[in-house]
Amino acid sequence: MPKVYEAPVWYVGLFYMLLAAWTAVCVILLGSKTLRFGWPLGQLLMIAFVLSYTWYFSLGISYKITLDGKGNIGLTSMRRKLSLKPNEIELVEGPRFSVIPYCFVRFRLKREKAYLFVRITDETFHRILYSIRRAKPEMKFKGLNMFH
Predict the structure, then answer these.
(1) What is the pLDDT of residues 1-57, one digit of tens each?
(2) CB-based contacts of 96: which residues, under 8 Å, 6+ apart?
(3) How far is CA 31 from CA 45, 97, 108, 134, in A?
(4) What is the side-by-side order of every strand in the sheet holding 3-6?
(5) CA gap 44, 116 in Å, rounded
(6) Bridge partners for 141 per DSSP
């Protein structure tokens, strides 16, 4: 039977609203300085690259994790859907400070890192992690006190 955890819509929406507000403030402030002082095109392109890369990375943060009956893991983001096997995950890392129950969990894969929006106290999320751990007992879990 498949297990599915999906981050709260308000949490994901709040993150992207704050990112949009940050982007708007940067564009407005930098745009006004450019009009006033005339920045070189190279600097403007560099700033545009940083903003674009921030959005590209942010749209890759997963909001849903699925675990099917065969042990396949799916991470769904606005930009892509990753299909993984437990042996492709080397480390699952939780937040360093768990003061707020809403955070990001990092999955270190062989060639990249994947992030997931999480309510760290969610029981469905815990069941998925326990199932992944059963499939690969030697997998490392860091910062997730449910495994200590």
Answers:
(1) 789 999 999 999 999 999 999 999 988 888 777 777 776 777 778 888 999 999 999
(2) 143
(3) 12, 36, 37, 53
(4) 3-6, 64-67, 73-76, 81-84
(5) 31
(6) 92
d(CA 145, CA 31): 45
> How many domains does the chain fold into?
1
Orientation of helix 9-37 relative to helix 41-58, angle to 10° = 180
Identify the CA nearest to 8 among candidates 114, 92, 144, 124.
124
Would you list the DSSP string of 62-110? BSEEEE-TTS-EEEE-SS-EEEE-GGGEEEEE--S--SSSEEEEEEEES
List CB contacts of 72: < 8 A, sequence separation 6 or more.
Answer: 83, 84, 85
Give the range of the structural domain holding residue 145, as residue numbers without chain letter.
1-148
The neighbour count for residue 12, using CB atoms within 10 Å, is 19
Cβ atoms < 10 Å from Cβ of 115? 18
